[in-house]
Amino acid sequence: MSRLGNIYFNYLLYWLYLEISMGRKNKLLVFIGKPGAGKSTLIKELNPDGVIIDVKTFVLAYEVNGQVPEEKTEQAYHDMYAQVMDKHEDLLVLEIGTNHPQVNVDEFKKLSSDWEIFIFICTASIDTLKKRIIIRPEDNDMAAMERRLQRNFPELHLSLLERASLPYVILDMEQPMTDNIILVNQSISYR
Prior knowledge:
- By secondary structure, this protein is of the alpha/beta class.
- It has one domain (about 25-190): P-loop containing nucleotide triphosphate hydrolases (Rossmann fold, 3-Layer(aba) Sandwich), CATH 3.40.50.
- Helices cover about 50% and strands about 15% of the residues.
- It has helices spanning about 5-20, 40-45, 55-60, 70-85, 100-110, 125-135, 140-150, 155-165, 175-190, and strands at about 25-35, 50-55, 90-95, 115-125, 170.
- Helix 4 runs parallel beside helix 5 (about 100-110).
- The chain contains nine helices and five strands, in the order H-E-H-E-H-H-E-H-E-H-H-H-E-H.
- The longest helix is centred in the first third of the chain and has 19 residues, at about 5-20.
């Protein structure tokens, strides 16, 4: 972890301790973005030892012959949210892709009764995403990857979040990591 990331993470832990001791809700940080946006990298910088739930783990549980049937991905999201409901951490980080935006927004609304939710929309250009994906050995189904890259994001997500009155922050994942670390921490601290 970078020195700046470590300083902000320690500040965040102290701030969470103060918030929780005053009876506030636990925090759920949700990072949404296409493959290659840098969600995992940012999360590891922000929360290296924390509890992170990645939808990819749940989606891969439905893998058959190296592929996940599209109709099974929605069930994977529901499986993930069932696990989130069982968690009681002070700070929980959720990493999700761009699939099933209505399902996700509906789940955020349900979770908001028990969690203070911070939603971060992670954006990057298609060219940048493709350059980052090419160096990842685990993504071997390039046809499925191309479909994921072509999804309508973030426009559909933003309109659904706005209709549901759920606040969000857009992160430009092509900016320096430290800029996004600062923006995430400021977003959490000032709400």
